[in-house]
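>> received
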Amino acid sequence: MADITRRLGWRHLRGAPTAHVRHHRGEKLLHDGPGLSFWFRALTAAISEVPVDDRELAMTFHARTADFQDVSVQATVTYRVGDPAVAAARLDFSIDPDTGVWRGTPLEQLGTLLTETAQQHALDTLARTPLAEALVDGVAAVRERIAAGLGAEPRLPATGIEVVAVRVMALRPEPEVERALRTPAREQIQQEADRATYERRAVAVERERAIAENELASQIELARREEQLVDQRGTNARREAEEHAAADAVRAAAEATRTVKLADAEAARTVRLAEAEAARSVKLGEAEAARAVTLARAEAAGAREVGEARAAAQEAWLRVHGEADVATLHALTGTRLAENLPRIDSVTVSPDVLTGLLARLGGERE
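>> returned
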């Protein structure tokens, strides 16, 4: 779409580099070329804008194969306007001088022309091709046929159209047919997967068996080595016991010899001590005997002197008591009795006793 600006009854058009502009005033061609910019009057100007860039036309249509199966075709045609003057003369590319918008729909007309032409050649090709072959090689065949058909179509050069490239993206059957066709392939893939699974399991079982055999062989070898180890330990134990027994015998002999020597030395020392003790005992016995005789004599003399002294004191005591009168003896007796009586802290005299004592004292006085 052209960019048009209005100024005081005049219009200014600024075209794009990819748009070919043709400006007529009456029968005279004033401007012709891409990317033009000029002033014009809307009442006398006839302007056409033809795009000269590459354009993509996507198309989708249905076809039927030789075995009466419906398929859908997805294709894209790249084209351009090679001769803008011819295209502007054959199709309505005129624009509104006020808005710059096409008055008609030229691109839709070109799309219809290209789609119908391509569809015609694709239908002719697929109608002679079975579905299986179409699904395998149909994309390339349909693309080549459409490209050749569009290149040989006389209406396109007459309209100034050039086909740049043709691409066919997909050629697909109906969903039910596609699922039916996928089933054998899926079954085969599943069978291959199952076969691979079984082979993997077989390999795993074989590896497990090899591992188990290796473990069993390792256990057997370990048991054999343990048996050798037990035998070697027994031999070592016997050798150690024999060495210990020999060492114990040597140690016992040395201990017996040392014990005999110690016993002999102890016996000799004991004899010497006994002899010395006997000699000392004899000397001590003689000294003790002499000391005992002396003590016995001294004790005997002391006992005799003590007895004589006691006898003399007893005799003097008897003599004194024999010469004393009866009252003195009574007084001495009361004194000795008082000395041997327990201590009396207080004496309680009742009135009856006191009265009797006073009466007795009064009678004695009388």
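>> The first helix runs from residue 84 to 90.
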